[in-house]
Amino acid sequence: MTVFGLAMRSLRRRTGAFAASFLAMFLGSAIIMAFASMLDTAAAGGATGQARETLEIMAYVVGGWGLLLVVFAVTSTMTLSVRQRAAEIALLKSVGATPAQLARMIVGEAAGLAVAAALLGVVPALLIGRGLLRMLHDTGQVPAEVPHAFGPVAPAMGIGIMFVSATAAALITARRATRIRAAESLAAAAAETGRTSRRRIVFAVLFLLVATNQAVITVTVMDGRGMDAMATSGQADILAAIGLALLAPAIMRRATALLAGPVRRLGGSTGDLAAAVMRRRTGAMAAAAAPVILFVGTAVGTLFLQATENAATAAAGLSKTAEQKDIETLNLVVIGMVVLFTAIMLVNTLIAGTAHRRREFGQTRLAGATPRQVLGLAALESAVVAGTGVVCGTVASVFTIVPFGLARRDSLTPDGSVWTYLGVVALAAVLTGATAYGATRRILRVPAVEAALS
C-alpha cells in the first residue's frame, strides 16, 4: 500500500512528466474503442451481408493496425518518462528502495494512468465511432438504417487492452530502470544516450523480417492477382516503420555523428553548441524521431499504394467496383488515423522532452549562450530529427510501394505525384520544427537563474 501511495503522489506532483504517456493512452483507448464499436454495431444494428463484412473489416483490419501503433506509442512514452526520472530513481535507490518496490511504483503509476485515460476516452470514442459509421453511410457501404451501437465489446476492449499494454510496457521499462545501480542511473540521467537494448534489437529485426516477407509474397505469390496484392503489401510499410522506429536510438547515434560536421559549418557557434549537445541526447532525439518515421512511412506508403491501384484501374479502362471503393475508404481511414495519432504523438513527445530541458537551457544561458542561440540549438536538433525520420520513413514506405507496383503494374516506379510525397515531408518537418521552437520559446520566458535551479 505504501508503494501504491508513493506512485499516486508521484503522479500528482509530476503531472508534466506523465502528460505524454497519459495523452497517448487517452487517444489510444479512444481509437481502439471507436473501431471496436463497429463490432457492436454489426451485432446490435442488424447489419447483414456486405454491410456486416464492411463493419467487421473496419474493426479488425484498421482497428488492428491502430492497436499496434497505440501499443508502440504507449511503450515509447513510458520509456521516455522513466528515462527523464533517472535521477529520481537513483535517489530512491540510494535511500534504500529495492528494485521490486521501484518496479511496483512504476507499474502502479502506469496502471493508474491507463484506467483514468481509458475511462475519459469513452466519450470521444463514442463520437469517433459515430463519425466512422456516418462515413460508411455516406459512401453507401452500410445502409443508413443501421444505427451505431457502443458496448459491451468497445469499452471492454478499450479499457482492457489499454490497461494490459500500459502495465506490460511499465514492467519492461521498470525492469531496465531498476536493474542498474544508483551511480549508473545518475550517469544515464546526465547522458541520455539511450542505448539500444538487445530485446529492442530482436523485436526490430523481427518486424523488418516480417515486412520483407510481406514484400516478397506481394511480388511472387500475389503477382497478377490485381487488388488482392493490397492484402500483403499494405501491411509492409507499417511493419517496417515500427522496426526502424525501434532501431531509432542506434540510427540517431549514427545520424548525429554523420551530421555533426555540416551542423558546425552551417550553424557557426550555435552549430558547435548543437553538435556537442546532440551527441549526448541521442536517446531523447530518437524518441522524437520514432513518430516521424511512423508518420512518413505509413502515409507515403498508403497514399502511393492507392495511387498505383487507381492508375491500374484506369489503365484497364474499368470503373471502380464497390469492393474497390470499400478498400479506398479503408486506406483513407488508415491515413487519417495515422496522421492524427502520430502527429499528436510527435507534438506530445517534443513538448515533454523540451520541458524536461528547462534546467539544461537555464544553465546554458548562465554559461553565456543567448536566447537566440538556444532557439537555434533547438531548431538544428529538430532539423536532424525530422531529416532522420523522413529518410527512415521513406525507406519503410518502399516495402509497400515497390512490391505493389511490380505486382500490379510491372513497374518499379510508383504512381502518384511527387507533390504528395513533398506534402507529407513538409507536414512532418513543420510539426517537428514548430513544436520544438514553440516549446523552447516558452521555456526561455523563465529567467535563467530560476530555470537553472528548477
Summarize the structure.
Helix content is 84%, strand content 0%.
Characterization of this structure:
With 454 residues, this protein is an all-alpha fold. The protein folds into two domains: 1-191, no CATH class; 192-454, no CATH class. The chain contains 17 helices and no strands. It has helices spanning 2-13, 15-44, 49-84, 86-94, 99-120, 122-138, 153-179, 182-191, 198-219, 230-246, 248-279, 282-315, 322-355, 358-366, 371-409, 418-444, 448-452. The mean pLDDT is 82.
Helix content range: over 70%
Structural category is: mainly alpha
Give the overall silhouette: globular
What is the CA-based Rg, rounded? 23 Å
Largest sheet: none
How many helices? The count is 17
How many domains in all?
A: 2
Total strand count, please? 0
Poorly predicted ranges: none
- The percent range for strand residues is under 5%
Distance between the termini: 30 Å
Oligomer: single chain
Order of helices and strands: HHHHHHHHHHHHHHHHH
Mean pLDDT: 82
Transmembrane segments: 16-37, 57-82, 102-129, 149-172, 201-222, 234-252, 284-305, 332-353, 374-406, 418-439
Main location: membrane
Membrane topology: Multi-pass membrane protein
Protein name: ABC transporter permease
Layout of SSEs?
Elements (H helix, E strand, L loop, with lengths): L1 H12 L1 H30 L4 H36 L1 H9 L4 H22 L1 H17 L14 H27 L2 H10 L6 H22 L10 H17 L1 H32 L2 H34 L6 H34 L2 H9 L4 H39 L8 H27 L3 H5 L2
